[in-house]
Amino acid sequence: MAERVRLGVNIDHVATVRNARGGRHPDPVRAAEQALAAGADGITAHLREDRRHITDADIEALSGLCARAGRPLNLEMAVTDEMLAIALRHRPHAACLVPERREEVTTEGGLAVAGHEGRISPVAAALSAAGIRVSLFIEPTPEQVDAAHAVGAQVVEFHTGRYCHLSGRDRAGEFERLQAAATRAFDLGLEVHAGHGLDYQTATDMMAIAEVRELNIGHFLIGEAVFVGLPEAIHRMRAAMDAAA
């Protein structure tokens, strides 16, 4: 039997709500506890350079929580010396290198690895040497997949935002692009993940790509939690994924 596709829950936007007013509520660490108890396979958190949601203290607490629970923490991070130092200090299970621009509301597009191998390779090498799994958040193109392999990544996470915003033939074409990139990555020995913009339906769609081993979902689940609670939103997502499998 094939290994079950993992569900990583991104708790960034619990911190977004907290930071809108200051103080400690709602607590993203409490959200992570609930997510793990509800069946999440791991926790994802993005420590941005401007600390707009997740903070250094959150990462410290999440590292401890995931270690105690025996579940992986996936630290999303920009390719900077500051973030590398933080990752090396906390030693998360995985570090996902992502693009980052101060003016964007959320991550827009994948990391440009092709053409920037000289900047990314040393960061990937330092993370790997510390026992941290290296993931690259990229667009589903052959050029980016090949570049991810060249810089020493173990994982690629495909940006699914474009797929989620398209419809009809355009969406079908984007699915074909995702499938082709997943096949190429698998053939190169890279593990394939997917994320960004996924909801119950589009997450189910991703399950049709046999190479996908993990989905990372945040904004939708946190939004659903307003109406049904976080554990129930995760239960529904897990059920939808399992039914599609």
How is this structure best described in words?
The model has no long low-confidence stretch (mean pLDDT 95). Helix content is 50%, strand content 17%. The protein is α/β, with parallel strands linked by helices and 245 residues long. α10 (219-228) packs across α11 (230-244). The termini are close together. The longest helix has 20 residues, at 168-187. α6 links the parallel β5 and β6 (155-159). It has helices at 12-21, 28-37, 56-69, 81-90, 117-129, 142-150, 161-165, 168-187, 200-206, 219-228, 230-244, and strands spanning 6-10, 42-46, 73-77, 94-97, 133-138, 155-159, 191-195, 212-217. An eight-stranded parallel beta barrel has the order 1-2-3-4-5-6-7-8, surrounded by seven helices.
Strand line-up of the largest beta sheet: 1-2-3-4-5-6-7-8
Radius of gyration: 17 Å
Beta percentage is 15-25%
Sketch the major β-sheet.
Answer: 8 strands, parallel, barrel
Q: Which whole number gives the mean pLDDT?
A: 95
Q: Can you count the beta strands?
A: 8
Question: Can you summarize this structure?
Answer:
The chain has 245 residues and is α/β, with parallel strands linked by helices. It contains eleven helices and eight strands.
What attributes characterize this protein structure?
8-stranded parallel beta barrel, alpha/beta, 50% helix, 11 helices
Topology:
Elements: E1 6-10, H1 12-21, H2 28-37, E2 42-46, H3 56-69, E3 73-77, H4 81-90, E4 94-97, H5 117-129, E5 133-138, H6 142-150, E6 155-159, H7 161-165, H8 168-187, E7 191-195, H9 200-206, E8 212-217, H10 219-228, H11 230-244
Parallel strand pairs: 1-2, 1-8, 2-3, 3-4, 4-5, 5-6, 6-7, 7-8
